[in-house]
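input
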Amino acid sequence: MEDDMQRLQDLNRSPYVEQAVWFLNAYWEKGTNFGKNKKEAEKVFKIHQLVVELDPNGAEGNELDEIKAHQVLEKFGMTKTHVDFRQLLKSIDVDNNGKVSLTEFLTLQFKSDWKELVNSIKEQGDGGRSLNAATETLKAAQESLKAADDAATKAKEDAATAAEKEKAAKSMSKAAVEAEAKAKKQEASAIKSEEKSKVDEANAKEAEAKQIESFNEAKAAEDSAVAAEEDAASKKAAAEAAEKDAADKKTAAEALEAEAKVNAKAAKKATTEAREAEKVFKLAEDELNKALQQQLKAEKELTDSKEDLERQEKEIQDRKDRLKKASEDPKAGPVLQGKAAHELAQMNAEDPSYLIVAKVRVDAAIRAQQKVTAEAASKKEEAARKRKPFLEKREAAEKAEAAAEQSEKEAVAARKEAEDALADAVQKRKDAEKQHKDALSKRKKAESERAKQEKLKKKAEDSRQKAETSRKAAEKARAEAQESAKEAESSRKDAEQKEKEAIASREAAETSAQELEVAKDKTILDFQLAEEALSYAKEVNEHACLGMIWWIERSLEEAKKTMSPVQKKKLEGKPHNSVRKSMSAVRNLVFGGM
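output
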């Protein structure tokens, strides 16, 4: 069992073609019996082609991953879902390596026993050694044919391309000559147009400059008019506001005047009433005040009398003091001392009681008078106390009356001032409206003039831009024309050179194509040699390597599909002498290997 598994693993590691040939050899005369069922053998061939196509390693590969294996199975309708594939993979992945070889595909497809397959040693014969010459000869013929076909095809294509290029080069050369002449003509025309466009541009710039100056003047006049109109509008609005304010102030002043007159009249009435209410108390107070003044006068007279007595008394005492001092002054002399002493004695001898009595009497009179005065003052104060609220009310009424009169005067003055201010504001508003109307008219005229000048400026700018664009276009056209002329000249030279090169390339391609036709004939010899080698190989393999023989024949047939009818006809003819000589060597190689 282990040997069988090892053989399977070895077979699975073989290239796809070896796996396919082993399978065909094993069942060529038994099982599927590919020898009698060529359609089934063809199916093996197709499966081999598919796995080679899917495998990144191509013919050198030996097994596919799960994704590629799934694609092969789906191609032959053997699985649908992923679950189905997983179950099928377990049944065909005999060596459990997670991949599927061509051998495992074929055992599944043809329901073969893999153990029987790996042990089909007899059917494999010598393992294909006797067919190596045929196989190698076929491989060489295929490669030679493909290389010759590719080279011949390319040579023909190159020759055709070279002929087309030669034709195109001649056409381009002719066109380049014509284009050069046309370009030089266009260059001369472009230079003339450029000179004219420069003159037009200069004239347009001059006209634009003059129009811009006119527009700037009109714009400045408009700006000035707009500013004046805005100032007038501002003054008008201010005047209207001032007029409204003055009207409001006049209305307010009239209301204040009316209110002041009412207040003044009420204050005057209140003053009159207060005076009448105070009058009785004022008369009583005035009478008591007169009496008080008389008592105060009498009291003052008594006081004055007392003061006079005290003055006399003081004068006498002062005289005595001087006489005594003089009588005792040794510097005065005896006479003066004596005289002073005598006079002092006379004064001391006089009776001073009259002064004392007079003083006592005056003091008593003063005390009596003060009592009378105090009573008069008390009465006067009582009268003043009773009068005081009426006095205060009258004084307040007089003050309120004076204030009301002043308010009335001020209200009248304010009303007159408001009337004068309103009249002035009305006049200023009228003046402002007139100024605003004049300014608005001037602004509209200035705007109209500015709009007119702006249109003219725009027209001038457009003309200048058009002229500038024309000049630039002319310069560009001149530059392009000059460049085109240079390019045309260069293109003409290149075209002439390419024409020469194209002729040389076409001649070389034609020569190469002729040489390759000879080389293709050689491939016919290679195929004839391969067929002869296969024929000799069949003679020594009657019951072994039969699948491999069919495989070689099938591959040879596949290769012929790429031959041309002429090549096929040549291949069907008699072998060339060189082929016969080569086949003798092949026969010796085949039989010698046996």
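quick obs: The first strand starts at residue 63 and ends at 64.
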